[in-house]
Design goal:
By secondary structure, the chain is an alpha/beta fold. It has 8 helices and 7 strands. A 7-stranded mixed sheet has the order 1-7-6-2-5-3-4, with helices on both faces. α3 links the parallel β3 and β4. The longest helix has 24 residues. The chain is globular.
Length: 223
């Protein structure tokens, strides 16, 4: 119990420090925060533009979030300790990690929130790639709702081609929650397509608000 409260206090301190640095430095703006359920299990499915995305996704929402991070990062003493304090869950890349999946399901069953990146890796061009299937399993086993999240501007600040980040303007949009029951009716493939199209639509709206050109995709919205 003491360890739980100690971790909780450290988490809040880290979050507050990141808030007073990231929000002004990246001129962060949030949209649709009211769409985030105030209680119950929630899965945030976000596009992936930079290493800072877990921070951008969390800072404007008061609920604590769990994340997944590749297990090799936890081997570094400082980075590993930091990741544990911000509720990161280690996961093996390149293979099905059943242990990590069980931890995610366990946290959701405790009514926690978990942030995942359904594209699988950071974007190479800022666009939203096809969403990987399999998330209906999490909602079916836990009853969690899904909140689509779109981050725009992080790619310009820290693309894969740059070693270090630069300052810029980042906007984060939270879509309306999709219930586990609605997802079950759609099925895995239909939900993946719906989520991808919804996220691309949200991205277009964010870019228009920021005075940017919308991304042009080689194919029309899938169905």
């Amino acid at each position: 119990m003491i360890k739980f409260w100690f971790n909780k206090i450290v988490y809040e301190i880290i979050r507050d420090i990141l808030f007073v640095t990231f929000v002004p430095f990246f001129r962060m703006r949030g949209y649709g925060v009211k769409n985030v359920p105030s209680k119950g299990p929630v899965i945030f499915l976000s596009n992936h533009q930079s290493f800072f995305d877990p921070i951008f996704c969390q800072l404007l929402v008061r609920r604590h979030m769990y994340y997944v991070a590749r297990d090799s990062l936890f081997k570094h003493k400082f980075v590993g300790s930091f990741l544990k304090f911000v509720y990161a869950i280690p996961i093996r890349l390149g293979a099905a990690d059943l242990g990590a999946m069980r931890k995610i399901i366990g946290k959701l069953k405790e009514n926690a929130t978990v942030c995942l990146f359904p594209e699988g890796s950071r974007t190479y061009d800022g666009k939203i790639a096809k969403v990987q299937p399999g998330f209906t399993l999490l909602t079916r086993k836990t009853g969690a709702s899904v909140v689509p999240v779109v981050i725009d501007g992080a790619f310009e600040c820290w693309p894969r081609s740059k070693k270090w980040p630069s300052l810029g303007k980042v906007r984060v949009s939270y879509g309306e929650a999709i219930t586990a029951e609605e997802i079950a009716e759609m099925g895995d493939k239909a939900f993946s397509v719906l989520l991808m199209n919804k996220m691309r639509q949200m991205q277009d709206e964010l870019r228009k608000v920021g005075g940017k050109e919308a991304y042009i995709y080689s194919e029309d919205k899938e169905s």
